[in-house]
Amino acid sequence: MAMVRPVSPRTPDGCEECLKEHSTWVHLRLCLTCGHVGCCDSSPLKHARRHAASTGHPIVQSFEPGEDWRWCFVHEALV
Fold first, then answer.
1. In CATH, what number is assigned to the domain containing residue 55?
2. C-alpha span between 32 and 22 (Å, rounded)
3. Single pTM value for the model
4. Is the pLDDT reported for residue 76 higher than 60?
5. Are the C-beta atoms of 33 and 9 separated by less than 8 Å?
6. Residue-wise DSSP of the chain
7. How far apart are CA 44 and CA 10, in angstroms?
8. For residues 5-21, average pLDDT
9. Which pLDDT score is estimated for 3?
């Protein structure tokens, strides 16, 4: 299974779990395996990291306007 592929954001309006839970987030991250949108480690609930841990999808891209960097949760490094 390819870890990085073209994806469409499943919830383009915000963090998937925060939207369901009526929580707040700081910044958003897009899973490059499945399109999950999760909140960053600066957010109270860290849903992007939780998603990576529970699914084994390690690479996210910033889902913030004007940013195009990627992060690997396995290596804790920019990729």
1. 3.30.40.10
2. 24
3. 0.95
4. yes
5. no
6. --SS-----S-TTS-HHHHHHT---S-EEEETTT--EEE-TTSSS-HHHHHHHHH---EEEE-STT---EEETTTTEE-
7. 21
8. 97
9. 82
One-letter amino acid of 4: V
Q: Model confidence over 17-51: pLDDT tens digits? A: 999 999 999 999 999 999 999 999 999 999 999 99
Other Cβ atoms within 10 Å of 56 Cβ, number: 12
Closest CA to 6 of 74, 50, 59: 59
In-domain check, residue 24: yes
Domain count for the chain, please give it: 1
Residue 78 lies in a domain: no
